[in-house]
TrEMBL record:
Residues of the Amidohydrolase-related domain: 53-400
Origin species: Nonomuraea cypriaca
The protein's name in its UniProt record: Amidohydrolase family protein
Superkingdom of this protein's organism: Bacteria
A Pfam family the protein falls into: Amidohydro_1
An MF annotation (GO) of this entry: hydrolase activity, acting on carbon-nitrogen (but not peptide) bonds
């Protein structure tokens, strides 16, 4: 069965221009675009009466297994229990218009396969398995008084600890063995980890380069959690392809982004949400006190990066009950960017980062038939995308999946 979207204003994010056209979708792809298209007899026709149609959204930094903000508790949870929560979280992401997401640690091949086979509703899921952390790093959730560490190989933790060049090579190879689309590395301190400082750097340059080498050998890439300019710049010099957060970058960082053709994935909404609601959804007090160190700097970092021409992708990094704010990132970025640039971050630019250029984030013939029918023009008011109630239809792989 095919689908025909009739009488649409179809946006090309690359040019920022709308075209009056019909779209015909079959076998999960856009197969035809143009005025007054005809279609086979079994085609479902949706006349959208001149509504604005954009590609399905891409969130390049999610944690679909993070049903609580107490990330340290995940490793002791039953995988089946976490999966039940993840299925709900993914279905709600799809209802908000996100048809593809990149998980930044926690999700595995089981969730990706279940979504692909239609066992659970949700965005197309690009996973990395468990993020790599040094001892005392951003994925080491032991308190200061704890000594023993259980890797929980069967369970749902977000990270694994590996120290030394040989150990990080093994860890990276192991995640790649399990099908990781990318490797996540913790290159600085973070909010959710109990014993590190936001302004610390993590992993030696030799360790970072070894992780990058293993990813590149498998034709994959590395995404690095990093906040300060010092941490970001070290990661970029080591060959990391995308920096997650980057709230405290400087002008030297911008030059390195451009030189290495790397991407920045700001996640402004998570700090706004953690400050407002973090403790209510399980964020420990010690972590909540760290939020201020990165909250105010995030918007300034985005402005610096955008002004400098850095490649930007849309990311949210939300946890627990705060996932519902996923679309609010559009409003926050509008403070320093034009609507078309914010939309590109969630379509064409994110697709390029994920290796899906020409397949996702576009409605060109041959691309995935992922699209949103909107109640309003997001280029005139980005709030159209910030409010899921403005979505008339969500189409994924040529099927209406939410309305």
């Amino acid at each position: 069965m095919s689908l025909l979207i009739r009488d649409a204003l179809v946006l090309d994010p690359a040019t920022g221009e709308y075209t009056e056209a019909d779209l015909r979708c079959a076998d999960g792809r856009v197969v035809e675009s143009g005025p007054r298209l005809s279609a086979p007899a079994d085609t479902r026709v949706i006349d959208v009466a001149g509504a604005h149609v954009v590609p399905g959204l891409i969130d390049a930094h999610v944690h679909v297994t993070a049903f609580t903000a107490d990330l340290g508790s995940a490793g002791s949870m039953s995988p089946s229990y976490v999966t039940a929560h993840s299925a709900r979280i993914m279905g709600e992401m799809l209802d908000r218009g996100f048809t593809t997401v990149r998980d930044a640690s926690g999700a595995d091949h089981g969730l990706a396969d279940a979504q692909e086979e239609g066992l659970i509703r949700g965005p197309r899921l690009l996973f990395c398995g468990k993020g790599l952390s040094q001892t005392g790093g951003h994925s080491d959730f032991r308190a200061r008084g704890e000594h023993l560490h259980d890797e929980h190989p069967c369970c749902a933790g977000l990270g694994r600890i590996a120290d030394g060049v040989d150990a990080v090579r093994v860890a990276a190879r192991d995640e790649l063995r399990k099908g990781a689309h990318h490797i996540k590395v913790m290159a600085s301190g973070g909010v959710a980890s109990p014993t590190d400082r936001i302004d610390s750097t993590q992993y030696s340059m030799d360790e970072l380069r070894a992780i990058v080498a293993e990813a590149e050998a498998a034709n994959r890439y590395v995404a690095a959690h990093a906040y300060t300019a010092r941490a970001v710049n070290r990661a970029l010099e080591a060959g990391v392809r995308s920096i997650e957060h980057g709230n405290l970058i400087d002008d030297a960082s911008v030059e390195l982004f451009l030189r290495h053709e790397a991407y920045l994935v700001p996640t402004l909404v998570t700090y706004w949400a953690l400050k407002e609601e973090g403790p209510a959804f399980g964020l420990p007090e010690s972590s909540w006190r760290k939020v201020d160190a990165v909250l105010d700097a995030g918007l300034a970092a985005l402005e610096r990066a955008a002004r400098g021409g850095v490649r930007l992708a849309y990311g949210t990094d939300l946890l627990g009950g705060m996932h519902r704010h996923q679309n609010h990132e559009f409003r926050l970025r509008r403070e320093v960017q034009q609507p078309i640039d914010v939309l590109r971050a969630a379509t064409t630019c994110a697709a390029e980062l994920l290796g899906l250029a020409g397949e996702a984030g576009t409605l060109a013939v041959g691309a995935y038939a992922d699209l949103l029918v909107l109640d309003g023009d997001p280029l005139a008011d980005i709030g159209v995308l910030a409010d899921p109630a403005r979505l008339r239809h969500v189409v994924q792989a040529g099927m209406i999946v939410s309305r």
